[in-house]
Amino acid sequence: MIEMILVLAVFVVLSAVAVPTLSGFGERMKLGQGQRDVERELQMARLKAVTANRPMRVLFNCPSAGQYRRVEVLGSALDDAADRCSETKYPILPPDKNPLTRPNFDGSIRYLPLNVSFGAASGLEFAPDGTVMYQNSGVWIDVPDPDGTAVTLTKTNTSVVASISVNHLGKIQAVQLPY
């Protein structure tokens, strides 16, 4: 009986040590999933821009915080319209089959995991040659640093930050999270 109580006591102590570690691991897993999803959407936008020979954007916090959407650049004032992320006004499937009318390549609204948010960047634009620009205070500019971090994701209530680097040539790479 004493041996069983000792084994149980050791198990309780080990469990008490492991629970905070496993809890933090779960939070990092959610952040990593968000990072992979955003990275895939960026890859898809770049692929669509190159194959369709049309600029594509991925807009962050669009239409609201924690959401993002891939949209085709129309080449007009509508590109910067406040309702550009509206799936009602700009549906995923184009209203007609004419490839000359636009937009034809808008994606659906995607969601970050709960309590994960974007950093300062509000969007990335991929040109038909695969190069990239990012939006800073409403202005589209070239990515300044060839190895710069373009997108950051932060998990609320933790100090863990995930990032995705996008260089000026459009190479997209998720930066390894510390585990």
Give a concise summary:
The chain is α+β, with helices and mostly antiparallel strands. About 30% of the residues lie in helices and about 25% in strands.
**Count of spatially separate domains:** 1
Stretches with pLDDT under 50, minimum 5 residues: none
Q: Globular, elongated, flat, extended or rod-shaped: what is the shape?
A: elongated
What structural class do the secondary elements suggest? alpha+beta
User: Can you tell me the CATH superfamily?
Assistant: minor pseudopilin epsh domain
What is the CATH class? Answer: Alpha Beta
Report the sheet-strand fraction. 25-35%
Listing every helix as H and every strand as E from the N terminus to the C terminus, the arrangement reads HEEEEEEEEEE
CATH T-level fold name: minor pseudopilin epsh fold
Strand order of the main beta sheet, please? Answer: 3-2-1-5-6-7
Please characterize this protein's 3D structure:
There is one protein chain. The protein is an alpha+beta fold and 179 residues long. The protein has a single domain, classed as minor pseudopilin epsh domain (minor pseudopilin epsh fold, 3-Layer(bab) Sandwich), CATH 3.55.40.10. The protein is 28% helix and 25% strand. It is built from one helix and ten strands. The chain has one helix at residues 2-52, and strands at 56-60, 67-72, 110-111, 116-118, 123-126, 132-136, 139-142, 149-155, 161-166, 172-174. Strands 3-2-1-5-6-7 form a six-stranded antiparallel beta sheet, with helices on one face. The protein is elongated. The two termini are 39 Å apart.
